[in-house]
Design brief:
Blueprint: E1 3-5, H1 11-21, H2 28-36, E2 40-47, E3 50-58, E4 64-71, H3 80-89, E5 99-104, H4 108-116, E6 120-125, E7 135-139
Parallel strand pairs: 4-5
Antiparallel strand pairs: 1-2, 2-3, 3-4, 5-7, 6-7
This protein binds coenzyme A (COA).
């Protein structure tokens, strides 16, 4: 499988994808910090054309979190995001662990993606983002409450 751990040499490609999609603004230092953190599971998808996607998880048992997942625009809708998501979730025992995430309320593409993969909406955090947009909060278990 062309999924492997992210390393420092991958960061320029990761920043390129992040910039192309303009959904997050982490800088090089933040990715470096994530790669080194013992609880971080940061991975890339390396296809024939180089790095086409990446994901960053915090593996913390019942408080695990998906911080970021992205697939280059031209490589989207081919299953790469699903592979990255499964690679991270497979590090958890979802009978006892839980993975949380937050996403912009208007990011329908990502929300469809998460809902397709069994994440449940459990709340909305009002004006969470700097531009005033709400965050939709998801987790891998629990009832939908709004
Ligand atoms: C979310 C994202 C990672 C999905 O990656 P992907 O490789 O396209 O996903 P997959 O091909 O594995 O899965 C496709 C599923 O995602 C959802 N999806 C993807 N593109 C979509 C679109 N344009 N419109 C609606 N739903 C879409 C659908 O549920 C789709 O399933 P379907 O094809 O059966 O309808 C990708 O769209 C992306 O990088 N978005 C920009 C970055 C982002 O917003 N990240 C999440 C916030 S942290």
């Amino acid at each position: 499988m062309p999924i492997r751990k992210m390393n420092s040499a991958d960061i320029p490609a990761v920043l390129r994808i992040q910039g192309e999609l303009a959904f997050q603004d982490w800088n090089e230092r933040q990715y470096e910090r994530e790669i080194k953190a013992p609880y971080t599971y940061a991975i890339v998808y390396e296809g024939d054309l180089g790095i086409e996607g990446y994901a960053v998880f915090h593996l913390l048992g019942a408080d695990s979190e998906l911080l970021s997942i992205a697939v280059s625009e031209s490589a989207q809708r081919k299953g790469i995001g699903s592979k990255l998501l499964h690679a991270g979730l497979s590090q958890l025992d979802l009978k006892s662990d839980c993975c949380f995430l937050e996403v912009r309320e208007n990011n329908i593409k990502a929300r469809n993606f998460y809902e397709k993969h069994g994440f449940n909406l459990f709340g909305i955090r009002k004006k969470y983002y700097a531009d005033g947009e709400n965050a939709a909060l998801y987790r891998t278990e629990g009832a939908q409450i709004g």
